[in-house]
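Below is a concrete protein record.
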Amino acid sequence: MLLVIPRTLKTSRFSPFRLLSTVVRACPLLSIKPTRGLVDEKLQIVVRNLRPKQDVTLHSVHQSEDKDFWEAFGHYVSDGNGTVTVAKDASLSGTYVGVEAMGLMWSLRPVPGSRTGLRFRKKDVLSPLVFHISVHDGHVSQGFTQLTPLESLVIERWYMAPGVRRFDIRERGVRGTLFIPPGPGPFPGVLDMWGGGGGLVEYRAALLASHGFASMALEYLTPGELKKLKADVNYFETAYQILQNHDMVRRDRLALCGLSFGGCITLSMIVYSKIIQPQCCVCISGSHIPVIKKSLDETFEDIRKHINKIRIENNQHIWRDITLPVPTDPTLKVDVARVTCPVLLVVGGDDQNLPTLEASEDIQHIMEKAGNHHLLQVLIYPGAGHLIEPPYSPHHRATNFIVQEGKDKILLLWGGQAKPHADAQEDSWEKLLAFLQQHLYHATPQAEL
């Protein structure tokens, strides 16, 4: 039976077509791509079927492995078609403003009432970061748990791509985790070292493996187990050899990557070690001061001599003055005139933990004078702090820190501002991957010594 609708009814205010249109507009549609992807993949977030010029809030919330909640939100106004496209439309206010495709990630912060000094870190890389993304009517800034969203979706963000394999390393006194990319291999290798906080941090190594590098996250300075690990020069050399001798690693295509104190270790090792001879290295928020002595205990003893230079402002500890001014005595800093492999320095212009800006200037001066400046690439990011991590990680201006000796917890100032720090993380990661690709995949390997 054919239903014929009179022309007059089609245009009347009781038209079923108008009613259908009203129903569609009353059901906003949230689209997020990808719903399951790597943490450094950009999201495409679009909200459709809103009213034209409707005020809405986009909200992101994540519960950490420590059971703390982190949230971010932006206030938007839909266009004439009732659509909000996050990559094109500006957030008017919230935890971020402007056109920010990834604002719901990098502007995450602990929800009101959380513990102080929290840091956003993934411990178990075998599971994803899970985010609940929702759309709310109006411009909302608080009380999200008491609100019913117009629409919501759950997305997963991974550090390990499908096919990446994870292996515990417990060999010759060395502890760490090796991540092998998917495929037959062998692959270029990266020895990945974190800072003076110690322990085993896996997520950057897992992400490097997701981009084609066999990456070994090295454990050292583990609280309560420093003597067991014997964290001295031999420890790092042994770790390098373990990575180099692995069946799935190209022994002639190796790199070091270190952040903070790990960056200091990196620079010392490439200059003074006869065993560690990488094709390139990355130093993130590190320095050529101090020189890493035979054991880290000796190194820390030298640092303690300048403990009186630590400033405390607003209950936040500022460590950047410990090695300032940059010494003129060449024996007190790594002799970077002897660097023979390409080096990438990543520097935050507002680093309050180490004087990385001053150190980078001194490194450039020394290498220019020595004639090996062509091996150095320096990325300086004004407004970025010390903790320059993989892209879209939340910015931490100050967080809790356990001082190894007494296990006392302090609030340590890292520096930086959220937006320029986020930009630094995104840009430096892209350049870091390109640097490793250039020198580990595309460059002619050095002859083995």
Remarks:
- Residues 165-442 form a domain with the Rossmann fold fold (CATH 3.40.50.1820).
- Residues 1-24 have pLDDT under 50 and may be disordered.
